[in-house]
Design a protein that fits this description.
By secondary structure, the chain is an alpha/beta fold. The protein has helices at about 20-25, 65-75, 95-100, 140-150, 160, 195-215, and strands at about 1-5, 30-35, 50, 60, 80-90, 105-110, 115, 125-130, 180-185, 185. The longest helix is centred in the last third of the chain and has 19 residues, at about 195-215. The structure holds adenine (ADE).
């Protein structure tokens, strides 16, 4: 998979993409990620990428020209263009799955107080990562890249994401334990030590259902 990210703050991505599973996925050529500073595309002599809003109001608004030119320099018929914005569709594991099947994603990070409405016409999909407003789309872009990259074939053990919360019939994950068997008086449930795989699977399923009912009853309806 190829991912192009448009951002005014390319350095924000350095550490996140240079650690752990994403770094390994890049090194193993499972994903290639390029960050584009769309300021480089502005035709403004002062390198401006934003301006005051028509009709008045506080803050600066991203202008369409640099973002249009940058997207058009990258886009192919296979590309899926995603715009990150708090008024997009709520991001869910199902969307991560669908996007992990694409060959090329272009992710546009908004910034400042907002972006010119015409920028929306570039997007195949507008995504929000939650009902809160961040200072820009960079952190949401990292969330998308992380959640999609781990689903790419061969990036992590397949069973791990089959077991994931939100994937398996929208159930939250069951409790997991490792050594020691007893820690500060807290014991590992006996069933997990039994070696009976059918019983363990049943216990895990029941625990998932119980946790989901308690914490996220909305997922059960
Ligand atoms: N940009 C600012 N806040 C955001 C959010 N919650 N989701 C996606 N993009 C955003």
């Amino acid at each position: 998979m190829k991912i192009d990210i448009l951002s005014l703050f390319p350095e924000m991505f350095d550490n996140v993409f240079n650690e752990s599973i994403i770094k390994r996925a890049i090194n193993d050529n499972k994903v290639s990620i390029k960050i584009h500073d769309f300021r480089e595309f502005t035709l403004d002599p002062h390198k401006k990428v934003d301006d005051t809003p028509y009709g008045g109001g506080a803050g600066m608004v991203l202008t369409p020209q640099p973002i249009f030119d940058c997207v058009e320099s990258i886009k192919t018929p296979e590309s899926k263009v995603i715009l990150l914005t708090p008024d997009g569709v709520p991001y869910k594991q199902k969307i991560a799955y669908d996007l992990s099947k694409e060959s090329h994603l272009i992710i546009i990070c908004g910034h400042y107080e907002g972006f010119d409405e015409r920028i929306r016409t570039l997007a195949d999909l507008e995504i929000s990562i939650g009902d809160y407003v961040l200072t820009g789309g960079e952190i949401p872009a990292m969330v998308l890249v992380d959640s999609i990259t781990r689903l790419l074939p061969g990036v992590i053990n397949e069973q791990s994401h089959l077991d994931d919360s939100f994937n398996d019939k929208f159930l939250l994950d069951y409790p997991t334990y490792t050594k020691p068997r007893e820690f500060r008086g807290m014991e590992v449930p006996e069933v997990l030590l039994s070696g009976d795989h059918a019983k363990i699977a049943e216990w895990r399923y029941n625990e998932s259902v119980k946790k989901t009912k308690e914490r996220r009853p909305d997922l059960m309806s």
